[in-house]
Amino acid sequence: MMKYSGIFAILLSFLVACFNYPASGQDKIPLDHSVYDHWQVLKNPLISNDGKQVVFEIDPQKGDGNLVLYHVGSTENDTLPRGALPSFMPNSDVLVFRIKPQFDLVRRAKLKKLKKDKMPKDSLGIWVIGSKKLIKFPNLESFSVPEKGSDWIAFLMKRPEPAKAGNDTTSHQKEKPKKKKKEGKLLVIYNPLTGDSVTFGHITHYAFSKNGQACAMIRMNHDTVDSVSVSVYDIGKRKLINALDRNGFSKNISLDEKGEQMAFTFSADTAKQKAYGLYYFNPSKKKLLSVSGKDFSRLTEGWSVSEYGKVFFNKKGDELYFGVVPGPVPVPKDTLTEDEKVSLDIWNWQDSLLQPQQLKQLDREKKRNYMAVYFPKNDKIVQLGGPQLEDVSVNPKAENIYSLGFDDRPYRKMISWSGNRYEDVYLVNRQSGERKKILEKVASYVSLSPAQHYVAWYNIADSSWNIYNIKTGVDTNVTGALDVNFYNEWNDVPKEAGAYGYAGWTENEDLVLYDRYDLWLIDPSGKNKPLNLTKGEGRKNKVQLRYRQLDREETHLANLMLLSAFNEKNKDAGYYHLSLKDNTLNRLIMEPAWFKNVKKAKEANRLIWQRETFTDYPDLYISNADFSNKLKISTANPQQEKYIWGTTELVNWVSFDGDSVQGIMVKPENFDPSKKYPMLVYFYERSSQRLNRYYIPKPIRSVINWTYYASNGYLIFIPDIKYKVGYPGPSAFNYIVSGTQSMCDRYPFIDRSRLGIQGQSWGGYETAYVITQTAMFRAAMAGAPVSNMTSAYGGIRWGSGLSRAFQYEETQSRIGGTLWDKLPLYMLNSPLFSAERIETPLLMMHNDHDGAVPWYQGIEFFNALRRLNKPVWMLVYNGAPHNLSRWADMEDLTKRMQQFFDYYLKGAPKPVWMKYGIPAIEKGKNFGFSLDNQR
User: Confidence class of residue 161 from pLDDT cuts 50, 70 and 90?
Assistant: First the structure.
């Protein structure tokens, strides 16, 4: 632990700035690839309930990080090395967190190829704030902190390795060694303020009540047969109360919020496929009840309790939820040798889901279970779900009798070609199990009101919000008569537009909806006319206003609502307050910046939030609830002052077809308008809303890092793109090329002879298409591009198992019809059929485990260009997904893309991998990064 006083920290920053970080932009240096590892990331910010403490992680992208505890109003912080995933105790006096093992220690273990159970483990860290005392426990598995007033925590840790036996030659050790049983873990219930603790061994599962008054546990006994003990520890009475001690297996243990009721599953079966029953226990009465009954007699005949179903109580504790399943189905004995077995998938035209999707969902289907509820007060079980209604949504906070059920079975086959996911909606009575279908073929929002008088839903077919009255069964269109749109006005794909959504329900059970800009109050009874809560201020100023929930426990909208704000015109952002009591709207903060992660202290009018711009890292701020007295409390990356950065500005132009468009121009910090600069053009749908986002220097997954290229002397132009159905390629050309030409005409500092273009996925497709239509770009990089829509249409998205047809007919690819109905459009929009027109050298990345765009699309394009003797390279990262995920792969791509663009746009030497390639025999040995100076 390290701590610095505020004065010392200021002095240290001053000295560092004076001796290490140049003040003049002319003295700054460009970013290079060596900066990535140690560029810091701030994450997991929390504020204590009393608002007096703030904690956050500051971690390098590679290496050991710290947990920083900020004391509001104090001149010092506490720094806890390698701390992560913090939680405050309810009384705000103790911080509990994980301590990660040292990065180098983990790396050495990986080099030794240690198994997972032998790898270095996290430790538990407990920081007692008042005494500045650090308590640590090794080999942490998990920990639980109460949500309400308690000073106790519970955590599970791996048992210490047993000492090696000496010359013990007892008879049982002479027998043939048996398969080692799973030993279980140590459960510790601990009070950090007093040091009191109690420890239980051989624990496999535990549950800690939200009020911190009880801890339930399952203990594995060390008998010759499998047996378990299920108990609950009453922390106040320091008493262990045993519920069950029996041969068998137990899991899925749960407590209600007060710690007064416990539930768990248990099976006495010794077979691999076990049938579980559900047990209920009241510790105060020491009463154990088999909810499912002997031989599951209280469940549907032939059914049992699922071992995979979540067991939980509702907030009041008068309902216990669990999952049930038919069976279990006995597993037949294997009577065939491996070479006698057949591995086969049969695709049937009547299958509701394609075989690849079924295989992707196989594990989920094996664990499929259906919702049931037990009422302890009247000892009643009601099965809510089943094969005819697989999905029943339960709100633990709901106090009335209804839940909503959803059935997509009639529409599953449509998933292959429809962009909408339709389902029928049922009203499910939890008291009786009665189901009533109230809506058909719904494809958007559905919400049950808190008092359960109404169901709100969005009808995507006519773009209206509707209210279903549960008592009368009448469904009413409540927005059709209003002169504003509640559907997405930017929708440019060939399917119905979705809704802007809703904020929630008020205490009086009114519904609050969003249009593009404002919030509307809807009276479900129809007695009062719809009311524009924000009085049209959002639409008037082109500012999008959206509710931000600050209290996780709320069951209805707060009377004083915090609204986030985003200005579509200039991209400023901030927050407003909206009072539901007097319908007043007050602006709190609005800046040319981006805000995120706003959180409120539970018991104080104090907020924390992050603010960022293109030049300002999203550091953490603290303020009053109205954003007054704001103070920045972190400086994650002071070393940024050492490097050339960039600036962003909003640009406007008119497209070839006369449309007004916005985009972003990124310039180097040391920009000189008298010089000529190479320019990269990057795009993905509409990106101008990212004007004030910060881009941390880091290896890329697939697209250029704006900050890195600006720091290294590039301009970057990011145009918005709008689409005409049936013509995605020409639409991209219209906006990308018109914008690029407009920028070149407007700004003489852009070197027209040194233009590059880059995109990934949909942007990769557009890159490939654009270079078939123009030779204005000197170099292009396309990641995972679809090159042939006719072959891609009938393919599979292997990451999900879905057919690719839906995205061409109704979503992003925007053709708007089937291959046989719109064949000319599929060919017109496919870069492959115009490959002979390409004059731009192309670098592609298409990985062999791409689950979104099959990598044969890249192969088709590469082979065509190779056959045509066009300069083309394709990077295939083995085992990698659509966007790279491994750090080493990302570093590799970052360097190669930079070398590619530097060669064509800056005249840098050609690297070996571009000039000569890397033969397979040299794979993994020679990476070809060295530069060939003989041009």
Answer: low
Cα 575 → chain centroid: 24
- Is 748 inside any structural domain? yes
User: Binning pLDDT at 50, 70 and 90, where does residue 224 land?
Assistant: low
Neighbours of 730 (CB within 10 A): 17
Residue 7: its H or E element? helix 6-19
Kind and range of the H or E element at 859? helix 856-867
Q: List, in sequence order, every residue forming a beta bridge with 2; answer none if it has no partner.
A: 79
**How many other CB atoms are there within 10 angstroms of residue 131's CB atom?**
10
Q: Which DSSP string do the residues of 240-304 spell out, in sequence order?
A: EEEEEEEESEEEEEEE-TTS--EEEEEE---SSS--BEEEEEETTTTEEEESS-GGGTTSSTTEE
Helix (H) or strand (E) run with residue 57 in it: strand 53-60
- Strand-pairing partners, residue 649, are 665
| Residue listed under structure tokens 């900020």 | 70
pLDDT in tens, 562-613: 999 999 999 999 999 999 999 999 999 999 999 999 999 999 999 999 999 9
Q: Domain total for the chain?
A: 2
Q: Which of 88, 113, 138 is the last residue of a domain?
A: 138
Crossing angle for the helix pair 728-746 and 762-770, to the nearest 10 degrees? 70
Residue where a domain stops, chosen among 99, 117, 138 = 138
Least confident of 26-30, 96-100, 194-198: 26-30
Q: Exposure pattern of 66-77 as b/e (b: 16+ CB <10 Å)? A: bbbbbebeeeeb
Cβ(232)–Cβ(215) below 8 Å: yes
CA 648 to chain centre: 27
Which tokens go with 603? 């018991």
Cβ atoms of residues 594 and 573 within 8 Å: yes
CATH code assigned at 751: 3.40.50.1820
What residue type is assigned to position 509 of the chain? Answer: E
Strands 197-208 and 185-190: antiparallel
Chain position carrying tokens 């059929």:
833
Q: Tell me, yes or no, whether 481 lies in a domain.
A: no
Q: Per residue in 534-561, is it b (16+ CB within 10 Å) or e — as a string?
A: beebbbeeebbbbbbebeeeeebbbeeb
Beta strand segments in 89-170, E:
94-99, 123-128, 133-137, 140-144, 153-157
Interacting residues of 527 by C-beta distance below 8 A, sequence separation 6+: none
Alpha carbon distance 28, 26 (integer Å): 6
* pLDDT computed for residue 184 by the predictor: 80
638-693 per-position pLDDT tens digit:
999 999 999 999 999 999 999 999 999 999 999 999 999 999 999 999 999 999 99
Q: Average the pLDDT over 532-543 and give the result.
A: 97
610 inside domain: no
Residue 69's nearest CA partner among 13, 127, 122 is 127
Place of tokens 């403490």: 53
Quick check: 453 pLDDT over 50?
yes
Give 775-789 pLDDT, tens digit per residue.
999 999 999 999 999
Q: How far apart are CA 787 and CA 862, in angstroms?
A: 10
Task: Check residue 18 and give its pLDDT.
Answer: 39
CA distance 902 to 295: 73
Residue 592: closest CA among 641, 639, 650 = 650
At residue 160 the predicted structure's pLDDT band, cuts being 50, 70 and 90, is low
Residue 560, pLDDT > 80, answer yes
Query: What pTM value is reported for the model?
Result: 0.92
In a domain, 706, yes or no: yes
State the chain's mean pLDDT as an integer.
93
Q: Which domain holds residue 4?
A: 1-138
Two tokens, residue 491: 């929708």
pLDDT at residue number 165: 46
pLDDT-based confidence at residue 223 (cuts at 50, 70, 90): low
Query: How many whole angstroms separate alpha carbon 863 and alpha carbon 576?
Result: 55
Q: Where are the alpha helices (DSSP H) in 771-822?
A: 789-792, 805-809
CB hemisphere CA count around 549 (13 angstroms): 12
How far is Cα 418 from Cα 413, in angstroms, rounded to an integer?
Answer: 9
